[in-house]
Amino acid sequence: MSSRPRIKETPVTMDTFLKGIWEENPVFVMLLGMCPVLAVTNSTINALAMGIATTFVLLGSSALVSLLRRGIPKQVRIATYIIIIATFVTIVDYLIQAISLELYNALGAFIQLIVVNCMILGRAESYASRNNVTKSVVSALGMGAGFTIALLCLGTVREILGAGTLLGFPLFGADFEPWVVMILPPGGFFVLGSWLLIFALLKQRKTKMEELTRAH
Amino acid sequence: MNQPLVEIRTSPHIHSSPTVAQIMRNVTYALMPLVAFAVFQFGISALALIVTVVTATLLTESLFAKLSGRENTIFDSSAAITGLLLALTLPPGFPLWMGAVAGFIAIALGKTLFGGIGFNLFNPALIGRAFVQAAFPVAITTWSPAFAPGRFVEFIPSTLTMPLMRPADLTPWIEKINASAGNAVDAFSGATPLAAWKFDGIATDSMDLLTGMVTGSSGETSALLILLCGGYLVLRKMMNWRIPATVLAGAFITALLLFLFDSEAYPDPLFVLFSGGLMLGAIFMASDMVGSPVTPLGVLIYGLLIGFFTVIIRTFGGLPEGVMYAILLGNALTPLIESVTQPRVYGDKQKKGNSA
To answer: Cα separation of A29 and B323, whole Å?
Structure first.
């Protein structure tokens, strides 16, 4: 059963954590887990809550998958991962319900849908099942932070334009004209596209600069 | 040194002279009478709106040319045309800052992100309008009366709204001009002919629609003037007349069928042709060279579909006007229409049972 190839363990570095935030950002670079990114980022609070909930599930499932990685038979690994992830989603589901019913209603079915967030399954399959617990946990924290930051990037812009508020505080006074479309699903696509554009531009600039410095 | 005697290259070998810049310049000329009439009808508010939107489109075009490191294309006046067309489809009292947003979106989202002129899938002006329609549904359906007294000295109250702020309600202002002119109630009204028909069942005289003695978006009121301007482009062979003709035919046929079915519930086909933005959309937007098919049969299908969808959306949809969505739908269908109407290549095998 344990015929899984042993991967040479590399030590945990700062890079393990930072990769999830910048280089392999789950939203802006890998475009994983688009469903919550587009659906619940209509306000900053929703985005933050979804980001934290996802990070918690990612953290828990990565740790457990990594712990059990030698015991899980290869043939049924996906089903096992899903059960582990679903366990943590259930915990989060009840936790949010207990902490704030208002938030629970705002996020709706998207809390349960964290189960099918492909970023979490992807990390379990491609990272946690091949690395030790410490590395998996650090990497999960990085990925979770990257995901939360991305959700906040979208949520902030959409809330400011779509409702004129930030975290519920009005920014422009009572006469603000809300951009209705920003709260609606198309707004999610517009803002995500704009962020991707900005990051693509930054990346292009960076590679160009690197080429220039190398040439000199 | 080693120049070959005969230069071999693929067709086309003969080019007609007009360049993109020349065609675009002529479209600008053709739009000028509409701009003049809009200013005459709605005063300085319409002028300010047109100037703002065109400035926004030109600045956006320059900005994206700079960002992408490409040649700056603002001098072929295509961005200016997008701005002009967009401004002409907006209500005259539309807040200037929203106009600037529409202009930015039109060029940024509708044109440059697809790769610039010639690559846009949809008509950029309509992308801008569709965005502000979705973002500011109230402001874009707030119409101000035509030929208001004092329109050359004061702005419509909603025009000078501060950025990000909600435009003022026009009802008190309309009451004020009615009172100052000593008119009966509603002599100056913000209701467009289409809205009057849809919500109150009042039909407007076709003659008024033809000459533009009605309210509406800045440049869509006078059907006759739009026809004349379009005629100029057709005479200069800078527009495919088949597109507007088939769009209008499609709308006319659909409206006629509905009218014959129940003349009480559905408007008369001439009213459908001359009201709202159909004329402007058919002549200046559906005929956009980039977003429309090139095959002859494709043009026919494309035009009829746009006309058909316009009437269907107007009649059965929630909004009084449907030209914008009909044209965007037509643009979206263009690649499909072209792929199914490819003409037979000369010399290729004939299909079975096809004697032509």
So the answer is: 39
Cα dihedral across residues B228, B233, B239, B242: positive or negative: positive
Q: Nearest residue on chain A to B136, judged by CA atoms?
A: A179
Give chain A positions within 8 Å (CB) of B166.
175-177
pLDDT higher than threshold 70 for residue A23 = yes
- Asked if the C-beta of A186 comes within 8 angstroms of chain B's C-beta atoms, the answer is yes
Give the tens place of pLDDT for each residue, A71-119: 999 899 999 999 999 999 999 999 999 998 988 998 888 899 999 888 9
B106 CB near a chain A CB, below 8 Å? no
| Neighbour tally for B263: CB within 10 Å | 10
A5 band by pLDDT with thresholds 50, 70 and 90: low
Q: Give the global pTM.
A: 0.84
Q: Which residues fall within 8 angstroms of residue A2, CB to CB, at 6 or more apart? A: A70
Give me the residue label for tokens 């410095």: A213
- Interface confidence, given as ipTM, is 0.79
Average pLDDT over residues A172-201: 87
Q: What burial letters (b/e) apply to B76-87, b meaning 16+ CB within 10 Å?
A: bbbbbbbbbbbb
Q: Assess contact for A164 and A172: CB atoms under 8 A.
A: yes
Q: Are B167 and B147 in contact (CB under 8 A)?
A: no
At residue A169, the 3 state secondary structure works out as strand
Amino acid at A100: S
Q: What parts of chain B have a pLDDT lower than 50?
A: 355-356
The C-alpha atoms of residue B223 and residue B226 are separated, in whole angstroms, by 5
Tokens 């379009």 locate to: B230
